[in-house]
Design a protein that fits this description.
Layout (H helix, E strand, L loop, with lengths): L8 H11 L5 E6 L5 E5 L2 H13 L3 H8 L3 E4 H4 L4 H9 L4 E6 L7 E7 L7 H14 L3
Antiparallel strand pairs: 1-2, 1-5, 3-4, 4-5
Helix pairs in contact: 1-6
């Protein structure tokens, strides 16, 4: 797997973190045409994304494939993606909100992570979805 980044997305990700109150880090990734990290706000988020893309499993990969968002705490997803949950716990991340990037990056996902449990809600998902057009502009 190769990883590359589109530096122009990093400032938008950082700005998004200001509007989603409990988000501690964010990463943009895609599974096609080849697995890639497009941008990130934190090296831990990047490494978590790379792990998922490398093995082809995890919530970001699932969102990119299914085009359905995931809003959960680690305790809710550990049976679905045990390797991801273990790695996220090692990084002290307990909540996640991952939304698809369709139509700009049809096989992509925006992942937000938080150190606290129950950090995200439906309002945060709506906010992130409304932000996607400006976030994914090339």
């Amino acid at each position: 797997m190769t990883t590359y980044e589109i530096p122009s997305h990093a400032p938008q990700l950082s700005e998004l973190l200001r509007y989603v109150p409990h988000a501690d880090m964010a990463v943009l990734g895609t599974t096609a045409p080849e697995p890639a990290v497009l941008a990130h706000t934190d090296e831990r988020a990047r490494s978590l994304e790379v792990d998922q893309l490398r093995i082809g499993k995890g919530p970001s990969v699932e969102v990119a494939t299914s085009q359905r968002a995931v809003l959960a705490d680690l305790s809710q997803i550990r049976t679905y993606w045990p390797d991801f949950a273990r790695r996220a716990r090692e990084l002290r991340l307990h909540s996640l909100l991952i939304v698809p990037l369709d139509p700009v990056f049809p096989a992509g996902a925006l992942s937000l992570y938080a150190h606290r449990s129950h950090a995200f809600d439906d309002h945060d998902e709506d906010l992130v979805r409304r932000s996607l057009p400006t976030l994914t502009r090339r």
